[in-house]
Amino acid sequence: MSRKIDPEYLDRENLEKLQLKRLKKVLDRVYHKVPFYREAFDARKVKPDNIKNLKDLERLPFTTREDLRAGYPYGFLTSSLSRLVRLHTSTGTTGKPKAVLFTQKDIDQAARLITRSMSMTGAGPEDVFQNMMSYGL
Q: Which InterPro entries match (predicted)?
């Protein structure tokens, strides 16, 4: 059985190792499942295995609003449509709409992140939080 790691209590060296391990997992997934990223990585002569430390982030391509529009709606999808539970889109008033799709795992992970962030401000289980921020697409 694997032990759950709480990044909040790791020293800097082990936190960076964990971040790099998780980053490489994401890079490998998008490189092999999303043609846009494979082409963008190849254009920069970068493969997921070339990322050896967090400083190597500088070598990765950016994803722009135009890229998201060009991939609308499923161009950046890395899992099957049947696993999707939420879709956020822009209105498209300034051009073609942009879409971001989420699985239940994505939603759960975001909830854990928000919970950790709120606990750092002193909020607890009995407090009420209203998210008034847009999704910024």
A: AMP-binding_CS (IPR020845), ANL_N_sf (IPR042099)
